[in-house]
Amino acid sequence: MTSPAEPESPSKPGVMDRLRARFGWFDHVMAAQERYKDSKGDFYAAGITYFTIFALFPLLMVGFAVGGFVLANRPELLAELETKIKGAVSGDMGQQLVNLMDSAIDSRTSVGVIGLATAAWAGLGWMANLREALSQMWGLQRGEPPGFVKAKLSDLVALLSAFAAIVITVGLTALGNGTVMRKVLEWLGVPDFFALGVLLRIASLIASLGVSWLLFTWVIARLPREPVPFRSAARAGLLAAVAFEIFKLVASVYLSSVLQGPAGATFGPVLGLMVFAYITARLILFATAWAATSPESLAAAPVGPPYPAEITTRVEVREGIGIGGAIAAAGVGALGALGLSRLTNRR
User: Fold this and answer.
1) String of b and e for 117-146 (b: at least 16 CB within 10 Å)?
2) Which pLDDT score is estimated for 175?
3) Which of 152, 200, 230, 315 is the most buried (most CB within 10 A)?
């Protein structure tokens, strides 16, 4: 005699599920990773990297044009530069470099105009991609999209604001540099001692971390196309700043070892710039996903309308009386015949 089948026991949670249930910070990181993956973070990071590299060439053209205007208005500086070029490169090669520089100075206006137009186009593409990526990481639900002109004007204002923020960040980072701070202390008459270098290094690292925190917080909180919680953005900005400083230290050590060879000196700067831009973009987007999956952000997120209910009408059509009707009719007929025969016998 077989025993009755026992009910199946529910499956035990896996290792990841147990870790997420035990550690809240780990659950938050995994939720951020899921948001990043579901929102196609790698795809947007690649687009941001493309526009970043593409915008460098027109910016170099603008830089050359600015240098041409400066040298054209400073003939003594131009003559000194030509002398240094001829002294460093002798023969026809030096004269060709001087002629190339003179032709670049003569065409400074056209180079500057083309560079500005191309930089504006690439910059608007970069900003549009970045803002759309940040909005996707936050899971923002927008209504009707703005018109083309309005969207481009909004991206232009955001691009100018980002440029100003980057300039301020670079300036503050330069002021927090240990070498600059050492010169300031020398100018103030502060004597040099053994622990001064360590203290300046720590102060420079803290200043760089604080400036990066401000920049990343501004990017995460102000560049999305819809308002977002500032507190969550500030925490995510601090996370991105710490990871960015660690990444800079690792990248500096790696590049110093790679650039020693001839191949590294030729292709290393370009590849290093591409990797730097891609890792930075991924870092910003993941920090944004981390901010969007915080408890306060999830609580403040708008709840969308429920999915519409689907009502399916079921119609059954039966042709004829069917088997059940035939059996019932036969039974009624038999009962009727039996009753009729009894009435006939009584008579």
Assistant:
1) ebbeebbbbbbbbbbbbbbbbbbbeeeeee
2) 62
3) 200
Q: CA angle 117-134-220, nearest 5°?
A: 95
**Which of these, 269, 137, 171, lies nearest to 163 by C-alpha position?**
171
What's the pTM? 0.72
Mean pLDDT, the chain, as a whole number?
77
* Contact call for residues 234 and 221 (beta carbons, < 8 A): yes
203 within domain boundaries: yes
* Among 286, 219, 220, 197, residue whose Cα is nearest residue 247: 286
Q: Quote the percentage of the chain above a pLDDT of 90.
A: 17
- Which residues, 6+ apart, have CB-to-CB distance to 159 below 8 Å? 123, 124, 126, 127
For residues 143-163, give the mean pLDDT. Answer: 78
Residue 232 lies in a domain: yes
Query: Residue 309 falls within a domain, yes or no?
Result: no
CB 59, CB 123: distance < 8 Å:
no
Position with higher pLDDT, 307 vs 26: 26
Q: Are 94 and 88 in contact (CB under 8 A)?
A: yes
- Is residue 332 one of the residues assigned to a domain? no
What is the arithmetic mean of pLDDT over 172-176? 63
User: Cα-flanking dihedrals φ and ψ of residue 205, to 5°?
Assistant: -65, -40
Number of structural domains found in the chain:
1
- Residue range of the domain that includes 244: 19-138+149-297
Closest listed residue to residue 223, CA positions, set 149, 177, 287 = 287
